Amino acid sequence: MRQTVYFIEGDGIGPEVWQAARPVLDAALDKSYNGEHRIEWKELLAGEKALRETGTLLPEETLDALRSASYAIKGPLGTPVGKGFRSLNVTLRQTFDLYTCIRPIRYFEGISSPVRYPEKVDMVVFRENTEDLYLGVEFKSGSPEAKRLIAFLHDELGISLSPDAAVGLKPMTEKGSKRLVRKAIEYAKASGRDSVTLMHKGNIMKFTEGAFREWGYQVAAEEFADVCCTEKEARPGKIMIKDRIADALFQEVLLYPQNFSVIATPNLNGDYISDALAAQVGGLGMAPGVNMSDTLAFYEATHGTAPSIAGKDKANPCSVILSGAMMLEQMQLSEAAARIHKALDVVLAARTVTADLAGQMDGAAEVGCKEFGELLGAAL
Question: Is the entire prediction scored with pTM above 0.90?
Answer without folding.
Answer: yes
